[in-house]
């Protein structure tokens, strides 16, 4: 080892799902939206004045924050935007979790939370889900330095009711509570309505899943002006221009087309509900997902075997090689046609397996 190597910060990074390339592959492994972004996004992209790229974008990202403030009926001083919700969440960890007491989050959850806590030297404690993979709100009634959980949770897809979210907030008035609502539009009720009562609540959402814009990297947090001001102060302390100009204007365009948004959600939810019935018939069980994926285990065939067989057929799903999760596949909801191909393959494979 060279002497200078001792100065290198060593971390264990988050590992995202594969982005395999190819014509015929079916990609159900990273919870992307199978439908294209709103048509207005394409129009504005094609008409974009490329000379604008010479200039720095608006550091306050006002076109987008104002658009989101309008859409959600909050003040512009209550919205913070970032480079995907990963950026917003990382910034929130840095800004709000500065206690010596541990930050609490579920043991089975978005695996990035642990990575950020380690990166920023934040103490944390994970709380076990119950035997049905549910978050137990009463577990969050203990001394802590902050709370974060996804709702619906990932990779289970299970949703806490608004009452249960409020229970966690009521227990935790002395710390900041972050609700990560990456999948809330697929059938959940957002905690945004609790903002008036809870100044210590930050709701984080993303354009990557429900709005079909994972490639643009847009996420946002909504909270009290005090929280948003603090996030902005931290942001301006390391990079004033997080959001690029095309993302700002294209993001606005996506929000403008409410009808397209609702139709896309409706299609994905309908496909998800059909997929649940089909999976059950094939011998799978799963928590009752309210997101755009299903976390499913087969009663006989090991998940790893199915994962590999699917991959050979160019059908990509997500497999987690960890205790408690290693017999499950996380299957993103694709188009009707993609799901049809998935089920055709599973039927054939499971038939052969029985024989
Ligand atoms: C996908 C996801 C995110 C991050 O999405 P971005 O693409 O960074 O906006 C955050 N939290 C959860 C639970 C997710 O599944």
List keywords for this structure.
binds pyridoxal-5'-phosphate, 355 residues, seven-stranded mixed sheet, four-stranded antiparallel sheet, 14% strand, alpha/beta, globular
Strand order in space, largest sheet: 2-8-7-6-5-3-4
Q: What's the helix count?
A: 10
Question: Distance between termini?
Answer: 56 Å
- Tell me the β content: 5-15%
From the helix content, strand content and strand pairing, which structural class follows?
Answer: alpha/beta
Main sheet summary: 7 strands, mixed
Radius of gyration: 21 Å
Rounded average pLDDT: 96
Beta strands, count: 13
Uncertain runs are none
| Ligands bound, unique | pyridoxal-5'-phosphate
Indicate the multimeric state. Answer: single chain
Shape: globular
**Which range best describes the helical content: under 10%, 10-25%, 25-40%, 40-55%, 55-70% or over 70%?**
25-40%
Folded structure, characterized:
Helices cover 36% and strands 14% of the residues. It is an alpha/beta fold and 355 residues long. The strands form three sheets. Strands 2-8-7-6-5-3-4 form a seven-stranded mixed sheet, with helices on both faces. It has a four-stranded antiparallel sheet with strand order 9-10-13-12. The protein has a two-stranded parallel ribbon with strand order 1-11. Helix 4 links the parallel strand 3 and strand 4. Helix 1 packs antiparallel against helix 7 and helix 3 packs across helix 6. The chain starts with 25 loop residues before the first strand and ends with a helix. Bound molecules: pyridoxal-5'-phosphate (PLP). The site of pyridoxal-5'-phosphate has 13 residues, from helix 3.
């Amino acid at each position: 080892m060279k002497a200078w190597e001792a100065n290198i910060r060593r971390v264990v990074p988050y590992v995202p799902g594969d982005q395999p390339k190819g014509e015929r592959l079916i990609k159900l492994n990273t919870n992307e939206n199978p439908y294209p972004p709103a048509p207005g996004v394409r129009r504005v992209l094609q008409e974009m004045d490329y000379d604008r790229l010479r200039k720095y974008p608006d550091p306050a990202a006002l076109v987008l924050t104002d658009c989101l403030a309008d859409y959600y009926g909050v003040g512009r001083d209550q919205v913070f935007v970032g480079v995907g919700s990963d950026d917003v969440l990382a910034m929130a960890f840095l800004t709000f979790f500065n206690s010596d007491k541990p930050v609490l989050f579920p043991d089975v959850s978005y695996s990035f939370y642990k990575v950020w806590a380690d990166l920023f030297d934040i103490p944390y404690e994970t709380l076990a889900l119950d035997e049905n993979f549910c978050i137990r709100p009463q577990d969050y009634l203990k001394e802590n330095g902050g709370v974060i959980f996804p709702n619906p949770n990932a990779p289970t897809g299970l949703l806490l009711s608004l009452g249960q979210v409020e229970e966690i907030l009521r227990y935790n008035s002395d710390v900041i509570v972050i609700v990560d609502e990456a999948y809330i539009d697929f059938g959940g009720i957002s905690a945004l309505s609790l903002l008036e009562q809870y100044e210590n609540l930050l709701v984080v959402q993303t354009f990557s899943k429900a709005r079909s814009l994972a490639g643009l990297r847009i996420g946002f947090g909504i909270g009290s002006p005090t929280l948003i001001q603090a996030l902005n102060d931290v942001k301006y302390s390391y990079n004033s221009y997080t959001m690029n100009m095309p993302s700002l204007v294209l993001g606005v365009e996506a929000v403008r087309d409410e009808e397209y948004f609702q139709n896309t959600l409706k299609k994905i939810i309908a496909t998800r509900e059909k997929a649940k019935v089909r999976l059950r018939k094939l011998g799978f069980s799963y928590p009752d997902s309210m997101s755009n994926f299903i976390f499913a285990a087969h009663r006989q065939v090991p998940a790893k075997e199915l994962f590999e067989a699917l991959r050979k057929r160019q059908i990509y799903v997500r497999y987690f090689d960890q205790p408690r999760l290693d017999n499950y596949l996380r299957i993103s909801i694709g188009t009707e046609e993609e799901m049809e191909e998935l089920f055709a393959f599973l039927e054939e494979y499971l038939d052969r397996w029985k024989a």
